[in-house]
Amino acid sequence: MITEKFYPIGTPGKAWGEAERLEWKNKARIRRSYEDDVVKRITALKDRFRVSIYGMLSFNPDRYPLYYLRNQNWRPERPVILITGGVHGYETSGVIGALQFLEDEADSYLEHFNILSIPCVSPWGYETRNRWNPCAIDPNRSFYTLSRCEEASHLIQLLSSYMTRAHILAHFDLHETTIEDESEFRPALAAREGLEYVPGSIPDGFYTVGHTENPQLPFQKAVIQSVRQVTHIAPSDSNGKIIGSPAVQDGVILYAMKALGLCGGITNCRYHTTTEVFPNSPRITRQQCNDAQVAAITGGLDFIVRQELESGVCTAQVSHLRTF
Fold first, then answer.
1. Domain count across the chain
2. Is residue 259 part of a domain?
3. E strands along the chain, which residues?
4. Contact 233, 206 (CB under 8 A)
5. Of 173, 218, 248, 312, which is the most buried if we count CB atoms within 10 A?
6. Structural contact between residues 78 and 114, judged by C-beta atoms closer than 8 angstroms
């Protein structure tokens, strides 16, 4: 089908080839600094976290090393909390929220957990404010065996080494749903696939995406309750849906994480949530977006500690935990 409002790359009704993908890449421009915004904040944490490089992006390895952090006092007997941000590089609070959690809140949980964080999975996407990588591939549809996406394959390799010797209990994957999803990225996706662009809607507010095979709805509810102290939760539409998917409870939808190749399905953890903040809302500031990401993590972790304490997974006292 030919779209009436055609994206300005390629031929209507025809999927992109390598020439169109290269044209798309060449239109990208550096709009902010990975080094200044992200790497400097990562390296500033070296006194509290072990900072390592788990790969480099081949198209510019000197500019785009891939960093992960883990707490210095790593205890093999403790479960691991995984925090990922910037799978879609343009979703700013996913990156900054992960860093802010490490800077301000992580120490409160090290008596219970090991923390493993990859704050910026897609640094080229961060700098150019793009959803895709330079090959016009969406990293968050690429977490599967023999992935063609460098950002995804590097992270898969890193986590596979951890999963063989550590118990990853929870995964927080930090995202945004932005106005650019409809103004740029979904039209580009339709053009790339040679399909008609059908406009959608962007929910105004925060919501989470759980795993259809393991939704953990009480955990999702705790995340939502925590974020509600910072900003508003996205309402369901007149059909009871959020961004086209049925809301299973207030501010929560479910996706088939593994089947879709999403980062949220990269482990077999007990607890998972993908956060979604709407940074273009007139009701939220950029700092509140970052704070909402942090609140999602702390709310989820406080819930996990309460749930797991009796089973012996967490061994420390819980007097510092928040109540709502």
1. 1
2. yes
3. 49-56, 65-71, 80-85, 114-118, 168-176, 207-211, 241-242, 245-246, 252-255, 271-277
4. yes
5. 173
6. yes
